[in-house]
Design goal:
Length: 162
């Protein structure tokens, strides 16, 4: 069975209770999509969603993922709270578990910080162009070791510049 056939079977089993069975005829769908030379994107999305849901389940489910994300954010926020070089502009009650913005006390150090991070394999730390500063995106797939590596670099950079 091909990837497309597996995805189609998953999709059909998932939504048949909501859609007329004739609308999900594989032949009709292929004819429709072939007519416009467009890949059956919905099938791909459903297949990818299935992989993501399986990945989450393998890591203990949503509750375990939430706890993992809280732990990652705590590592970074706790360091930012005690730092003399970095600050976090977001009120504690409004902080995100996924995007952690921070600023260096001296904006003149921003480029040096980003270059050092890049040299250590840490990319995309530059904040949004309208806000500035830095932003660490620590979404679900980021392991806690990645956050720990960022904090270790931040400590090293702080020791050199304070």
């Amino acid at each position: 069975m091909t990837f497309a056939s597996n995805a189609w079977a998953l999709l059909k089993d998932t939504v048949t209770s909501f859609i007329d069975d004739n609308a999900l005829s594989r032949g009709a769908s292929i004819a429709y999509y072939t007519l416009f030379s467009i890949a059956p994107v919905l099938l791909i999305i459903v297949a990818i969603a299935g992989l993501v849901f399986g990945w989450i389940k393998a890591r203990g489910g949503l509750a375990a993922m939430a706890e993992h994300n809280r732990a990652k954010a705590a590592v970074l926020y706790d360091y930012l709270e005690q730092s003399t070089l970095y600050s976090n502009p977001v009120a504690r009650a409004d902080r995100s578990l996924m995007n952690v913005p921070f600023r260096l006390k001296d904006e003149a150090l921003d480029d040096a910080f980003l270059k050092g991070a890049q040299a250590r394999g840490m990319a995309q730390l530059k904040g949004h162009r309208s806000v500035g500063g830095m932003r660490a995106s620590i979404y679900n797939a980021m392991p806690i070791e990645g956050v720990q590596a960022l904090v270790a670099y931040m400590k090293e950079f702080e020791a050199q510049h304070v």
